[in-house]
Specification:
The protein is α/β, with parallel strands linked by helices and 204 residues long. Helices cover 34% and strands 26% of the residues. It has helices spanning 3-11, 13-21, 26-35, 51-58, 70-79, 117-130, 165-174; strands at residues 41-45, 62-67, 87-89, 103-109, 131-145, 178-186, 194-202. The two termini are 28 Å apart.
Length: 204
C-alpha cells in the first residue's frame, strides 16, 4: 500500500477509528455472517478500528486481524481488548505469507481500493494461496466515490483505484476465485456520494 495512504491512517488513527465505530454496518455484518463458515478461522486484511473482527469473534469465529497502519493496530487494542493477541501489523501486498497457516475465510472491508491494480492482483493471488479448498473471500469496494481526483487520490493523499464490477470479476477469476454473490449497499456513514459493492468469492 502506498506510503501516503498509510501515512494518512498513521496520522489520523484516533479520528478514523472513532468514525468507523459510528458507522451503520448491519448489512455488511449480515453479509459476512451468511458468507463465512460458522466458527471458522478467518483473516481480516485492513481491520481499521477492529469493529468487524470484534463482531465476528462475538459470533464464534476465530479471527486474525491485520492492518497496514501501526497506529491503527494500537487503536484496535484500546477499543477492542478482546482482540488482544489477535491483531498484528501487515502491509499489503507483500505482507501476506503462509506463516499463520490456512484460513476458512478471508475478508477485506474498504481496503483493496487503496492498492494499485498490480498490487490488487498480487493480493488476490496471496488470498487464494491462504484459503483452504472451498474457502471464501469477502471484500467491499466503492462502486461510486465522488471525492477522488483525476490522479486517483483524494484530498487527504489516499489512493483510490477505480475498477468496474466486471473488472473486479475478471481479477478474481484470474486469481482462481469464483464470484458467488454481490451486494450493493449505501454508505454506512450516510455519505450520498459513496456507494459500496460487497463481493463474496470462493476458491475451488
Amino acid at each position: 500500500m502506498g506510503h501516503s495512504t498509510i501515512a494518512y491512517y498513521d496520522q489520523n488513527a484516533l479520528e478514523t477509528t472513532q468514525r468507523y465505530e459510528s458507522a451503520d454496518v448491519q448489512p455488511l455484518h449480515n453479509f459476512l455472517l451468511s458468507g463465512m463458515k460458522q466458527g471458522g478461522r478467518l483473516l481480516e486484511l485492513g481491520c481499521g478500528s477492529g469493529r468487524d473482527a470484534a463482531f465476528l469473534v462475538s459470533q464464534g469465529f476465530k479471527v486474525l486481524a491485520t492492518d497496514g497502519s501501526a497506529a491503527m493496530v494500537e487503536q484496535v487494542k484500546t477499543l477492542h481488548p478482546q482482540l488482544a493477541g489477535q491483531v498484528i501489523q501487515l502491509e499489503l501486498p507483500n505482507g501476506l505469507s503462509n506463516e499463520s497457516g490456512l484460513f476458512h475465510g478471508i475478508y477485506a472491508v474498504a481496503v483493496l481500493m487503496h492498492l494499485s491494480v498490480p498490487d490488487i492482483e498480487t493480493t488476490l493471488s496471496g488470498v487464494n494461496a491462504l484459503l483452504n479448498p472451498k474457502g471464501r473471500f469477502i471484500f467491499s469496494v466503492p462502486v461510486r466515490r465522488d471525492d477522488v481526483m483525476t490522479n486517483g487520490f483524494d484530498s487527504k493523499g489516499r489512493r483510490f483505484t477505480a475498477i468496474s464490477p466486471d473488472a473486479w470479476t475478471d481479477l478474481c477469476l484470474k486469481c482462481n476465485l469464483q464470484i458467488v454473490q454481490t451486494m450493493i449497499c449505501q454508505d454506512g456513514l450516510g455519505r450520498d456520494a459513496i456507494v459500496w459493492m460487497n463481493v463474496l468469492a470462493q476458491k475451488p
